[in-house]
Each structure stands twice: as C-alpha cells, then as structure tokens.
Amino acid sequence: GEVCNMINKKYSEFLPSMQSAEDLVSQVDGLSSNIDLLRAGIENEVQRDLNVAVAEFTELKQQLERDTLVLSILKKLQEFDTAIKEYNTALLEKKYVAAAQQLEKARSSLKMLESRKGFELKILKALGTELTVQTQNMLYHLGEEWQKLAVWKLPPSKESSSLESVMHSELHLHTVPSKEEEIAGPPVASVLQAFAVLGELHTKLKIFGQLLLKYVLKPLISYPSLQPFTEEQSDVFILRFKSKEANLDHSSPMEVFDKIKLIFEVLHKYLLNVPLEQPVEDKKECRVTLAELLGDVIWEELSDCLIQNCLVNSIPTNSSKLEQYIEVIKSTEEFEKALKNMKFLKGDTTDLLKYARNVNSHFANKKCQDVIVAARNLMTSEIHNTVKITPDSGVALPRLPDPGAGDHLKMQTTSKLLHNDTVNLENETKLSQYTFSLPTCRISSSVEKLMELAYQTLLEATASTDQCCIQLFYSVRNIFQLFYDVVPTYHKENLQKLPQLAAIHHNNCMYIAHHLLTLGHQFRYRLTNILCDGAATFVDLVPGFRRLGMECFLAQMRVQKGEILERLSSARNFSNMDDEENYCAANKAIRQVLHQLKRLGKVWQDVLPVNVYCKAMGTLLNTALSEIVTRIAALEDISAEDADRLYSLCRTMVEEGPQVFTPLPEDDKNKKYQEEVPVYVQKWMMFKELMIILQANLQEIVDQWADGKGPLAAEFSAAEVKSLIRALFQNTERRAAALAKIK
C-alpha cells in the first residue's frame, strides 16, 4: 500500500504541473527500483509457501500491473514532451526534415496514449490541440519556403492559356545550389522531404503539376511556334518561352517530344532529383523519387493531350506514308525511355506508345472518316455544275498488275485511270472500251469527283493491310449508300421544281449504276482474298441506282404532263371555234403548250442522252396531241368554219411540234431528229389523219377508210369515224351512204 500511495501522490502532482523531464526521469528510476523489490518479493515468498500466499500473490500481481501501466503512460507523456521540444529547436535551425520527424514521433506517442482504455486523461485533448497547432505552423513555414523555391510568374488573366498569355509565363527555380550548400544538400530537398514526412507532398505536387500542364506542357503541344528557352543565373534557374514562325499547323511528334523532354530534364536537374525517405515500415520501397510522384500526378493528362493534339494529327492519310510512320513510333519509344530514366514514368508501354503502335487501325479509321466527309461534301454541293461525259471518257477502269504481281501498287493519278484504250479484264479477253460505254450526256462534276474518290480509295485499299483494306472497301460501299439516302432528300425541292436538275440527277444515277457494274471487278484479285464469299462487288447496288434515277425523272415527266393538260383544259373543249373568244382561248392554249415544250427542249438540250431526250420530248408532245384528238373527236357539231379553224390550230401543232426537238446545241444536227418525230410520237399519224378528215369531203373520207384497210382505219375505230362524220356533215342520203361504208 505504501508504494501505491506514493505513486498516486506523485501522479496527482505530476498531472497538473507537468514537471520537467528531469524530475520525471528520477521518479521513473525510483519507481523502477520499487518494482524490482516487488518482483523479488513475489518470487521469494511465493516459492516459499504457495498455498499460504495465493491471496497475497494475487493482490501483489494486480498492483504490479497497475504500476506497470502507469509507468508506461508516464513514459509516453515524457516522449511527447521531448519530441515537441526537439521539434521546436529543429524548426528554428531550419532543419525541416528533423522537425517533421519529431512531430511524427509526438503524433505516435499521442496515438499510444489515446489507445489505453481506462485512462481517459483530460490532458490528452490539450496535447492533441498542441500537436495540430504545431503541425499547421510547420506546414506554413514549409509553404513559405516552397513558394520561394518555385516561383510562377503568370500573366494576370487567370482563365486563358492563349499563345499570348503563355508567352508571358515564366517559372523561376531558386534551387541552384550555392557552393557551401552542396555539402549539406540543397534546401529544396529538405523542404520537400519534410512535406513528405508530414504527408502533404502529394497536395503540393498536384498544384505544381496543374500549373505545369496549363502554362508549360499543354501550350508546347498545342502551339507549334512556341519554343522553351532556359537560362541559369548564379542563384536562379529560369524557364521562359520564345515564339518562332511555325511553318505548319501541327508540329511533328518528334519536335513536340523534344520540347517536353527538355522541360522534364530541367525539372529533374533543378527540382525533382530528390529521394524521399519513406517511413521504415515499408522496407520494400525505400527510395521513391519526386519525379515519380509528379509523373503519377500529370502523366495521364499529358499523355491524353499528346495523343489528341499531336499523334492524331500525325496519322498519315495515304498508305504510302505509313512506312515513314515508323519514325514516329521510334521517337515515341525514345521519349518514353527518357522519361523512365528520369523516373517520371514507371511501368511498361503506356497508352501513348500503344496509340502510336496502333497506327494501322488509326490510319484506316481516319482514312474512312476523311472519305465519308469528302463524299458528303460532294453530295451536298450544287447539282447544276456539270461536266460532259462521252463514250471515250466513260471508262474509269484503272490498269492493275497481274494477280501475281504482289500488292504493292503504285498510286496512279485518276486522270490516267479515266483514259485507257482497252481494259484487260481477264488476261485473255480484250474488251473494246465501248463495251461498257455510256452515252454522251452531262453529269454533275461533283458526281464525277465522287467516282474518282471511290476509285482512289479502292486503289488505296488494295495497297493496304488486310484490316485496313476491308475498312476502306466498306467505306466505299458506304459512299454509295450515303448518296442513295442523302441526295434525293437533300435536293428534294429542286429536283421537283427544276426539270434540268431532275435530268442531271437521272444521268448521275445512271452514271453511278454503270460504274458499279464493273467497280468491284477490277479490284477483285486483291479484295476477294480478304472479303468472305468474294463479296468484293457493288453489282447489288446497281438496280437501286437505276430505279432512283428513273423515279426522279418520271416524277418530273408527270409534273410536265400535268402542266400540258392544265393548259389545254383552258381551250374551251375546242367547241364553237366560230366564236372569236373561244378561238382565241384555244389558240392561246396551243401556243402555251408549244412554248412549254420549247423551253423543256432547251433545258434538256446537251444534258440528257439523245435517245432519252427524244423519248421524253416525244412522250410529252404525244400527250398534247392525244388530248387534242380526244377533245375534237368528242365534238357533236362542227360547222365548216369550225373545221377550218380547228385545222389551222392542228397545223400549228404539226409544223411547230417537231421544232421543240433540239437535243444538240448545233442546230444543223437536230434536223435528223425533227424528221424522225413520228418515231417518238405515238399518236402522230392519228393526228395527221384527223387533220385530213377536217378538210375532206365524204368521198375522200370513205377512200381513206378503204373498207377498213386504209390509213384512216389504222388510227381510228369505225365508231370514232362515224361520230366525226355526223358532226361534220348534215344528215343527207349521201351521208347515210358514207356511214354505211364505215364498218
């Protein structure tokens, strides 16, 4: 009990007064000798007579445990106090690492105290507060030092990292060791290591890394004209920028890598080559360098930026340049190696290198995207800028090497592709170029370019790797499917309103269909090996394109027919022509129809192939003649004067109708087609027969009928002829006799 009272007394004195460490030490020594006596007492007495001493032993044992516990608590309090004292001394001497380590010691003593159950000492709270205050104080000092060591001089505008503002950014590193410091190690090391000990380094590096990305690394990637420029003075190292004329929009990856490497080299030399002493528990990783930590913070963002703003632009757009891309891959490997040597990077192949090595796939993707964008631009350009194609320009079959000649094709210029005399389709059969020739007509120049794009892309495909070849082949098929979907919709209104555009679109579709027949064929040796089931063909698209062209043109024809019938409907049914007003209306209707046809004949001239032109104009003229015949044949009464006037209206049609046929710009060449009008106008002869009837007497009509074998019988039925006779002639015996002969 004596000992216990003593400890309690000492303990209660100690707690409020927190005596100096020396007093504690002597108390601890006193206690220690007490404990030794106790231990000796237990051992001697117990061994002398266990049975008697069990009760006493238990009591002594519990007392010993209490004493031991109190002792360990006093020891920890003593350690805490010592650590804080030594921390203060070290901080004054600017021994930052030592100071930080003392703070960490104090922290672990406090942790031990807090973990003791049954001793909720009031003092612990005060000690915790003291520790927090001292830690913040130390971090403040370190922060001040760090700001003196790495100084950013940035332009005032916070937001922009434009070329202008980057030109005014500088980084000053006051970390050039002076002579006397070289032995003790530079202050930068102690500041950074102290941050590390206190667990604050990551935060500091993150902020530094963000500034580095925003004002140094990313601008160097984005602005080809930007050059880093370094200067070492006696006590400071300065990094700033110059701008030189850039000859390209994008700098090559090699140039960018060199600039970035330079930045990392100077950071490594002046700032980051500091080993961090890790706490001893993790024996494995004792030397983590600062560079590694900074690398962890910024590498991902830096590598993304390099891929998006540098490597993507360097992917070649034609396969002949793929060879040279090896350089880029090599320089990417070297860049990574340099960064690894400086410890910025750990681990193997990064995304950056994977991206560069995967150039074939990127090449194919980029190429296909370029092809589709180019095609889309062509499809949305004006239809009415046209070029004339003739049978000899019609063949765009490039010469290809024999199937055995390997895949290395020299790129040919498309103009050469478009003018070959004969095409060697199978090695034996020679086909004349006219086998596949197109009739002379006009097509949109954009469609000719589209076709050239398709050929160039397929040529490129045959010279590419398998994967790329397949992608390019399908993107050519996509071009045509896109045309099928985009053009009719995009140009819909104009195709309905403007007959000339409808004609050009018709030609465009026929031209494409024509080329699709043979397009896969020329490249089949190369493509069939790769595409399953020899699917290297475009033939399946042909009917769709023919239909597309036909439908558009037929829709236009329907519009024109509608207008003709509309105009003729104002001719008062061609009845009572002896009435001046009626005659004028009919005459005007006929003039308008001829005018409409003449105008169409002009806008389709030199655009439609001649045979299509003649069929189209013939069909429309036929519509007009047929309508006039139907109206006149339906009249119940035609006076002599009516007949004369109807005849003169019909004569206008017969004389001027053929003149609307002007398929060619040279007038003298059109005579031939004007003379052939009966071939193209189905009701031409019927119309001529009607005119004869309007002028003839009864006998002449009977002669023209010739017992159902004459020219009149070829065009009109007996009922129609009889109806006309009744309308033209009065009811007499002669008329009755004539009617009897028409049967």
Describe the protein's architecture and organization.
This protein is mainly alpha-helical and 743 residues long. Among the domains are: 34-138; 154-348; 696-742, no CATH class. Helices cover 67% and strands 6% of the residues. It contains 31 helices and ten strands. It has a four-stranded antiparallel sheet with strand order 1-2-4-3. A two-stranded antiparallel ribbon has the order 5-6. The protein is elongated. The termini are far apart.
Give me the secondary-structure topology:
Layout: H1 2-17, H2 21-48, H3 50-92, H4 96-115, H5 123-149, E1 150-153, H6 163-167, E2 170-173, H7 181-184, H8 187-197, H9 201-222, E3 226-232, E4 237-243, H10 253-272, E5 275-277, E6 287-289, H11 290-314, H12 325-341, H13 351-357, H14 359-379, E7 386-389, H15 414-417, E8 422-424, E9 430-432, E10 441-444, H16 445-462, H17 466-490, H18 492-497, H19 499-522, H20 524-530, H21 542-568, H22 580-603, H23 610-633, H24 640-656, H25 667-675, H26 677-680, H27 684-695, H28 698-705, H29 711-715, H30 718-728, H31 733-741
Antiparallel strand pairs: 1-2, 2-4, 3-4, 5-6, 7-10, 8-9
Helix pairs in contact: 1-2, 2-3, 3-4, 4-5, 4-8, 5-8, 9-10, 9-11, 10-11, 10-12, 11-13, 12-13, 14-16, 14-17, 16-17, 19-21, 21-22, 21-23, 22-23, 22-24, 23-27, 24-27, 28-31
Domain Centromere/kinetochore protein zw10 C-terminal: 436-566
Keywords: Acetylation, Cell cycle, Cell division, Centromere, Chromosome, Coiled coil, Cytoplasm, Cytoskeleton, Endoplasmic reticulum, ER-Golgi transport, Kinetochore, Membrane, Mitosis, Phosphoprotein, Protein transport, Transport
Domain ZW10 C-terminal helical: 588-742
